[in-house]
Design the sequence.
């Protein structure tokens, strides 16, 4: 069964540095999402992306965050200047139409 | 505002016992409903989903859930728990708006006694 993949599995960065988290959705998926889960907390929606533009974003998704699908396959989340509170597990998800979202295994981001 | 409530933070059951995890949602219409399971350090695996039709849905690993519109609930059940079911369980709703984003509950951690 095709899977959503994410790289890297674990990223350690210093506060103030830029990070890019990568996701490779299943090829026929059209809708893409980023979620995050701070350790011990629930999964929170960050942003949804369709037809090469953001369709919705949460209040968490401020100017420090951006998303893009640069080459039609990878879907990336960029954090321009990381803060300690950005430490979390970041999940990519994708879907085709009116069906379930398929989640990747996540990238654990640690900001020191 | 849309929300999901999982009132039980932790549940401990004995292996072989039955299980019910509660989930209540707040939404103006019938949303899409999901249960996901997360093992420690792992991603989210879909157990089952409800979009429409039969209100009792079957999922993987012997799980089932029942949608009760009158109670705004979507409780997860399993007749006989296995030790490997120990994990965190998340209920989620997917509003039928333009983004279909998922809104998750805070999760219930299931512990299984031998």
Sequence:
């Amino acid at each position: 069964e095709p899977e959503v993949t994410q790289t890297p599995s674990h990223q350690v960065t210093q506060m103030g540095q830029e990070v890019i988290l990568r996701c490779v959705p299943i090829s026929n998926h059209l809708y893409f999402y980023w979620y995050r889960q701070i350790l011990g907390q629930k999964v929170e929606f960050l942003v949804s992306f369709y037809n090469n533009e953001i369709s919705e974003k949460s209040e968490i998704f401020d100017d420090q965050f951006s998303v893009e699908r640069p080459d039609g396959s990878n879907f990336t989340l960029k954090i321009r200047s990381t803060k300690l509170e950005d430490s979390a597990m970041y999940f990519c998800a994708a879907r085709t139409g009116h069906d379930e979202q398929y989640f990747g295994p996540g990238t654990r981001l640690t900001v020191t | 505002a849309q929300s999901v409530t999982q009132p039980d933070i932790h549940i401990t059951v004995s292996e072989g016992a039955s299980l019910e995890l509660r989930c209540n949602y707040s939404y103006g219409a019938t949303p899409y409903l999901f249960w996901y399971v997360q093992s420690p350090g792992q991603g989210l695996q879909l157990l089952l989903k409800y979009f429409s039709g039969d209100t009792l849905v079957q999922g993987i690993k012997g799980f089932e859930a029942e949608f009760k519109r009158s109670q705004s609930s979507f409780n997860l059940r399993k007749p006989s728990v296995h030790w490997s079911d120990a994990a965190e369980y998340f209920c989620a709703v997917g509003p039928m708006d333009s983004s279909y984003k998922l809104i998750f509950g805070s999760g219930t951690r299931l512990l299984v006694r031998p």
The first strand of chain B starts at residue 3 and ends at 5. Residues 11 and 110 of chain B are 5 Å apart (CA to CA). The interface with chain A takes residues 34, 36, 42-46, 49, 51, 90, 92, 94, 97-107 of chain B (CB under 8 Å). Chain B has a mean pLDDT of 92.
